[in-house]
Amino acid sequence: MNPLTVEYINLARERIAAHVHKTPLLTSSSIDSGLDGEVFFKCENFQKVGAFKARGACNALLSRQIEEIARGVVTHSSGNAAQGLAYAAQVCGVPAYIVMPKTTTAVKVEATKGYGASVTFCEPTLASREEVSRQLQLETGAVFVHPYNDYDVMAGQGTVALEILEQVDGLDAVLCPIGGGGLISGISTVIKSLSPNTEVIGVEPEGAAEALLSLQRGEITAVEGPKSIAEGLLSTVGTRCFPVIQQNVDRIVTVSDGEIRGAMRTLFERMKLVVEASGAATFAALEAQKVSLKGKRVAVVLSGGNTNFLGGE
Amino acid sequence: MNPLTVEYINLARERIAAHVHKTPLLTSSSIDSGLDGEVFFKCENFQKVGAFKARGACNALLSRQIEEIARGVVTHSSGNAAQGLAYAAQVCGVPAYIVMPKTTTAVKVEATKGYGASVTFCEPTLASREEVSRQLQLETGAVFVHPYNDYDVMAGQGTVALEILEQVDGLDAVLCPIGGGGLISGISTVIKSLSPNTEVIGVEPEGAAEALLSLQRGEITAVEGPKSIAEGLLSTVGTRCFPVIQQNVDRIVTVSDGEIRGAMRTLFERMKLVVEASGAATFAALEAQKVSLKGKRVAVVLSGGNTNFLGGE
Q1: By C-alpha distance, which of A209, A159, A218 is closest to A189?
Q2: Between B231, B273, B276, which is nearest A274 by CB?
Q3: Which residue from B285, B308, B275, B311 is spatially nearest to B51, judged by alpha carbons?
Q4: Nearest CA of chain B to the CA of A7: how many Å?
Q5: Which of A253, A277, B80, B131 could pair with B53 in a Cys bridge, judged by C-beta atoms 3.0 to 4.6 Å apart?
Q6: Which residues of A are known to be catalytic?
Q7: Rounded CA gap, A189 and A158, in Å?
Q8: In the predicted model, what is the mean pLDDT of residues B74-99?
Q9: What is A23-50 written as a DSSP string?
Q10: Does A268 touch chain B (CB under 8 A)?
Q11: Average pLDDT, integer, range B266-274
C-alpha cells in the first residue's frame, strides 16, 4: 500500500529541514520574453551535494530508527545518489558504504569520499553492483537504501514541490525529469493534491524514454542500452514509482542530447547557472518547444549541477 | 568637488530600483569549512546584463534630464560596460551608440546589439576608440557616458554595498575588484560611512596592478601593457575614482591568472555559479590566502558572469 501523501511529504519536510536548503526559484526576463511566457527555475543545483538527492537520502535515514542504521547504510551509484546518501549518513553519524563501478570518474569518487563514505568498486554491470552491495551488507551489517524505489526517498524528493507551491502561484505546469522516477513521484503527489489544475509533465532523454514506453505499454518496460548525456536519467522506473506516475503524471515529453546541450548553454550564458545534463532536460523541453510556454506560467526543476568544469576565458 | 556620499548613493538606489535586481548574497558551508571563516558571495553575475555595470549605467542616464540624452548616448567598451549602457538606454528609450574594437568577439557584439544598441567598430587602440566616439557624438548629438570616471556611475555601483549591509551584519571585510575604480569608489564610500570598522580590500590582477602602483606613488600611474585573463580589470584608474580610493580603501592585494582560474573553478564546482575572470578575482584572493579568512566574516563581490560557455559532459 502506497503511503505517499502530502501529509507524509510534509513530515519529511520537517524531518530534513535542518539539513537541506530551501532552494531559490529564479526567473530571467530575457528567457521569458524569448519564449513568451513565464518560467520559474527551481534551483536544486544549489542543493546540498549539488542535487535534489540530498532530500530523499536525508529523509530515508532520518525516518528510520537510529538502531536500524547504526551499523551503516549501503547503496550503489556512480552519480548524485552516492553523494546524497554519503551526506545523509554524515548527518546521522553512521557509516556509508557506496558501491561504484570502477569506471566512475575520479572526481565523483573523491566527492563521495569527501562526505566520509567508504567506496568499494565493482564491475560496471548491474549484477556486479548488486552482488558487491549484498556482500557489503553481510560483512558490515549495514542497511541497503535504494536511490529511488523507496517511499521515504520519494517523500523527501517531493519536498521540492512543497517549496515551489510556496514560492509561486497559479502555475500552469511543472516540468520534472524522470530517471528512476523518485523525484516525479514525490512532486506529482504534491502537485495533484494541492494544485490539481497544474499539469505535471515528465521529461526524458530520447535515448532513454523508459517511463514513456512503460506508460504506453501499461507495465514497466526497460529500454535496451539506454543512452544519453543525461546520465542521471538512464535508470529503469521503480516498481513503487510506476503506479504513482501512472496516476499523477499528465504526459511525458522527450528531448535529444543536442537539445539538452543547448539548454545547458542557455542556462550558463543567460542565467549564469551551472546545471548538469540531467538537470537541464526540463528546460530543454521548453526551449525546443516540446512544451509550449506561450502565455503560461511554468516551473522547471533544475535537478542538479554536478558537471565537469571546462570553463576558461 | 566630490558629490559621492551615502545620501547620493541612496538616491541612486531609488532611481534604479525598478530596473536592476537586488542580487542574492550566497554562502557555501563547504567553502566556509575549508577556509575556516564565513564568506558571503554578492552575486552580481545575476544582475541585469550579467554584471554590476547595469547599476551605474542606469543611474547615469536616469539622473540626467531626458532632453539631455534624447539624441542618444555613446561609450566605447568591448565588455560589460557596453551592455550596461545599451540596457540603460533601452530603459530610457533613447538610442545607444557603442564603439567596439573590431577585435571584439562576436558574442559580445551580438549581446550589445540585443539591447537595441548600434555598434560601430574601431581599431583596437585607445586613440581610435576616442576618435570614433567623438565622431559619433558630432554626427548624432548623442552624449558621451564614461564607464567609470563619472560620479553617477560610481553612485550606481555603490548600491551594491547598500544591499550587502542589509543582507549581512558584522562584516570584517569587503573584497572588491578594481579596474577603472568605479565599483570600489561607490562601495568603499558606503562601507566607510555606514560600517567604518569593515575593512575595504581592493583586488587586482598581478599583471595589471595599476591602482596599487598608483597608491604607492601617490598619483595615477599606468602599467605598460597590462595583461590578465581578467579583461575587465585592465583599465587605468579614473581621476575621479583615485581620490576616493586613496581615502577609503584600506589595502590592495594582487592575484595571478592561475589563482583566478582556480577560483572560477571552485565557484563552478562548489557553488554552481558562472563567474567571469574579473568577477572571480576577489574570491581568488581568499582562496589563495592573500587575505586570511580565518575566523572572519568577509563579503566578496562576484562582479559579473559573462564568460564563454565551454561546458559539456
Answers
A1: A159
A2: B273
A3: B275
A4: 30
A5: B80
A6: 53, 78
A7: 7
A8: 96
A9: --EE--HHHHHHHTSEEEEEEGGGSGGG
A10: yes
A11: 95
Taking the Cβ of residue A79 and every Cβ of chain B, the question of whether any pair is shorter than 8 Å is answered with no
Look at A313 and B305 and tell me if their CB atoms are within 8 Å.
no
Task: Write out the three cell numbers for B83.
Answer: 551592455
User: Does the ipTM exceed 0.95?
Assistant: no
Cell of B141: 548629438
- N-to-C CA span, chain A: 55
Q: What is the pLDDT of residues B210-262, one digit of tens each?
A: 999 999 999 999 998 999 999 999 989 999 999 999 999 999 999 999 999 99
The size of chain B, in residues, is 313
Task: Tell me how far CA of residue B73 lies from CA of A124, B18, B212, in angstroms.
Answer: 61, 21, 32
Amino acid A310: pLDDT: 60
Which residue of B lies nearest to A231 if distances are taken between CA atoms? B313
β-bridge partners, A144: A74
3-class SS at A271? Answer: helix
- Cα separation, A150 vs A227, in Å, equals 25
Q: Is the dihedral of CA A36, A40, A45, A46 positive or negative?
A: positive
Same topology for domains B6-51+150-302 and B54-144, yes or no?
yes
Residue ranges of domains in chain B: 6-51+150-302, 54-144
Q: State yes or no: pLDDT of A78 exceeds 90.
A: no
List the grid coordinates of B66.
Answer: 531626458
Give the residue-averaged pLDDT of A117-127: 92
Handedness of CA A91, A58, A115, A271 (dihedral sign): negative
**Who among A24, A269, A309 is closest to B309 (CB)?**
A269
- Per CATH, domain A54-144 is 3.90.226.10: no
Residue in A129, A60, A69 with CA at minimum distance from that of residue A98: A129
CA distance A82 to B81: 43
Q: Are A148 and A51 in contact (CB under 8 A)?
A: no
- Chain B nearest CA to A178, separation (Å): 19
* CATH of segment(s) B6-51+150-302: 3.40.50.1100
Interface contact flag, A231 B45, Cβ < 8 Å: no
